[in-house]
């Protein structure tokens, strides 16, 4: 997870001011590691401190932070973009387990695709720089609720 100082440095490099609203949005992501927040969820959290902040300001800030590679935008095919802090650039992204019933998203850290990447390099000369993998299914919580249709 990036440190606050490295995030501030990226803002400076992008010639962007650190406004109180931007700082609060960054801190929200740092204080919610592993969560995949939508703009609406960020807006709700920001309003606890800045009552007058508009949803449009949150959207603009999320787009700015995504453009500066501070945040990553992720689509889980649920009709809304979600955001999380970008991890170090030299590593692959983590993977996601997405529940089709309740929408819960869990992170999966183990990278099982390393052998495939090695094979692609050997056989095709193609060096994979990054990849994104999502597993769609039913989470343990929903399965425990006894719905046979999900078995």
Textual characterization of the structure:
InterPro entries: FUR, Fur_C, WH-like_DNA-bd_sf, WH_DNA-bd_sf. One of its GO terms (molecular function) is transcription cis-regulatory region binding. The chain is an alpha+beta fold. The protein folds into two domains: 1-91, Arc Repressor Mutant, subunit A; 92-151, 2-Layer Sandwich (Dna Ligase, domain 1), CATH 3.30.1490.190. 39% of the residues lie in helices and 17% in strands. It is built from six helices and six strands, in the order ααβααββββαβα. It has helices spanning 4-13, 20-31, 39-46, 55-67, 114-124, 140-144, and strands at 37-38, 71-75, 81-85, 95-99, 105-108, 134-137. A three-stranded antiparallel β-sheet has the order 1-3-2. It has a three-stranded mixed β-sheet with strand order 5-4-6, with no helix packed on it. A hairpin with a 5-residue loop joins β4 and β5. α3 (39-46) packs across α4. The longest helix is centred in the middle third of the chain and has 13 residues, at 55-67. The protein is flat and about 50 Å long.
């Amino acid at each position: 997870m990036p440190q606050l100082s490295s995030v501030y440095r990226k803002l400076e490099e992008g010639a962007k001011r650190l406004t109180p609203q931007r700082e609060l949005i960054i801190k929200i992501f740092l204080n919610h590691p592993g969560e995949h927040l939508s703009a609406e969820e960020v807006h709700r959290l920001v309003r606890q401190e800045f009552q007058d902040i508009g949803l449009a300001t949150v959207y603009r800030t999320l787009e700015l932070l995504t453009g500066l590679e501070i945040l990553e935008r992720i689509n889980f095919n649920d009709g809304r973009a979600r955001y999380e802090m970008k991890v170090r650039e030299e590593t692959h992204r983590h993977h996601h387990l997405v529940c089709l019933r309740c929408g819960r998203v869990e992170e999966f850290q183990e990278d099982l695709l390393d052998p495939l990447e090695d094979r692609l390099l050997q056989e095709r000369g193609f060096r994979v720089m990054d990849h994104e993998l999502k597993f769609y299914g039913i989470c343990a919580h929903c399965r425990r609720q006894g719905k046979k249709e999900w078995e």
